[in-house]
Amino acid sequence: MTAVLEAEVRKARKVADAVAQARDLTIRELHEPIEHRDAERLLGRVWRTGPASPPVSGDLMRALSHAGAYVAGAFLDGELVGVTAAFLANRPGSSAELHSHITGVVSEVRGRQVGWALKLHQRAWSLERGIESIAWTFDPLVRRNAYFNLTKLGAHVVSYLVDFYGEMADGVNAGQGSDRLLVRWPLRAPDVIAAAAGHHIETPAAESAAILQTDGDGRPRRLAMPDGPTIRCAVPADIEGMRLDDPALAQVWRIEVRAAFEEVLASGARVAGVTKDGWYVFTRERKNR
């Protein structure tokens, strides 16, 4: 490890520890079977599954931990309130990176930034092992996650994955498809280092044309593909509540957002970020005529 990387590792660990301590959290790896069972129960609670079908079993987390993968928990006053699990990815033609498979935080501590503390711990853990990027997927319809991942963390969208997991039976995703955005977090990039220190860059709410917007009744309205270099795409303010109150409308949003993303990305645009009020912003270079 070079002196520069050693310094970056020390700084990453210091930042992660400071964020956890400021929120009275303890973040640590989970190594014992009893801890993995507790983690299984927490994830089942977050995803509203029965005890027979947790999103990740304690047995699997035990195996991942024993094999040297990343399984960690966040504790508040000694109680487990968040769990994350990740494993090494080795894609052809790419350097090794960590794939962060799942992160769950109980709703009672929402607002304490437990997810933020877990992600910074994961970043420091990865850098300590010479891993310089982390990838994961998230549902593009969940606005708060989009803002967290793309703005607060500084992750970059790699691709839009249609029905990535196939049909899911948990209490969050059942009947809604499993489209995901794949993102990559380059841990040593200047904007990521700044974001980790709390200095993230907001995506400007540019005066750009929309390909998808929200009607007055909360339904998506598709528009013609804009011709300019910047394009906006709306998502609902609270898709999780909508899935409970109006699952048919939530499914319409899934279909329309999927179509908008596919058309815009096929035009050569890339996702530049998410605005604070929930618009995805795409940018593309103008072609010389």
TrEMBL record:
Protein's UniProt name: GNAT family N-acetyltransferase
Top-level taxon of the source organism: Bacteria
Domain N-acetyltransferase residue range list: 25-173
MF GO annotations: acyltransferase activity, transferring groups other than amino-acyl groups
Keyword set includes Transferase: yes
The keyword Hydrolase belongs to this UniProt entry's keyword annotation: no
Biological source species: Kribbella pittospori
Keywords for this protein: Transferase
